[in-house]
Amino acid sequence: MAFPGVCLAQVPGAPGDEEELEEPTCVFSGMIWEGLSINGLGYFIEGKPDGEFVEVFLPNGGRSRKYAYYGDPPLVFYREVEVEEEKDKAKPGDRPAPRKDDDSKEPPPPKIVYVPVTSASFELAWKEIFLFFFKAKQEVDEYQVNAISFSHETFPAGHYWFFSRCEHPLTLQFGLDRGQLPAGGQAMIKARRDEFGDLGIRVFEQKGRAPRKVYSTIWNYNARTRTLVFMLPTSNGVKVRRIVDVVQEEKALGLRPPKEDEKKEKTPPSGPGN
């Protein structure tokens, strides 16, 4: 039996902040699951290249901080590049230009251009998203991105979200549940411990007629956390990586107060005699 691909639950909403902030299109965080951490990428808060640019840091092995985005899908990531503007080259036979008084001043700063690197598509209904960065080819410095809905309602505490990067199906025995994880597939499972209170995990792959156990251990359980689990292929089976996320409120970088025209729209008109 295959694990269900989606499992939803409801959690209580968090109390509102004292400071009124403009609601973004989405809040995102991310990571790269293989290779070095990513520096030097960024995005425009409103999705327009003439707006405010924010650099991001995407770690390997953990979730980044949260960032606010106010533009439309897709979310495009750029690399900031310095470009030196070429001066007019002198033609053969031309006399050197006369020296000016300002020639001794420092040269102007280099021009900054923003080169698109990759983009992430997402649905407008996703108010919080998580981005997985990866390289299709390790020898090429090009990234691809997968996005998932990462709100507490979609991915509540006490759940484990499994992702397989293997080219063949895997059989999981996780707590009291057992099922098949398709090749390149995913499944979200609510942790259910056994009668001894243990949360055991066993992973099998099909070799010939009999399944072969390639991973077996007992995981600690914390009802206040949610966990991303990656099944990565190796020559001897699979390598398992876990990213534990504590469900808590965190203010996103880039959040801003409402614009003046939006404040006026929300302010009710004063009545006669006021």
Offer a quick outline of the entry:
The chain is mostly beta strands and 274 residues long. It is 3% helix and 42% strand.
How would you characterize the overall build of this protein?
The chain has 274 residues and is an all-beta fold. The chain has two domains: 107 residues, Immunoglobulin-like; 90 residues, Immunoglobulin-like, CATH 2.60.40. It contains one helix and 16 strands. The strands form four sheets. A four-stranded mixed sheet has the order 4-1-7-8, with no helix packed on it. A four-stranded antiparallel sheet has the order 3-2-5-6, with no helix packed on it. The longest helix has 7 residues. It is globular and about 85 Å long. The termini are far apart.
Secondary-structure map:
Elements: E1 26-32, E2 38-44, E3 53-58, E4 67-69, E5 75-83, E6 111-120, E7 128-134, E8 144-149, E9 159-164, E10 170-174, E11 177-181, E12 186-190, E13 199-207, E14 210-219, E15 225-234, E16 237-246, H1 260-266
Parallel strand pairs: 1-7, 9-15
Antiparallel strand pairs: 1-4, 2-3, 2-5, 5-6, 7-8, 9-12, 10-11, 10-13, 13-14, 15-16
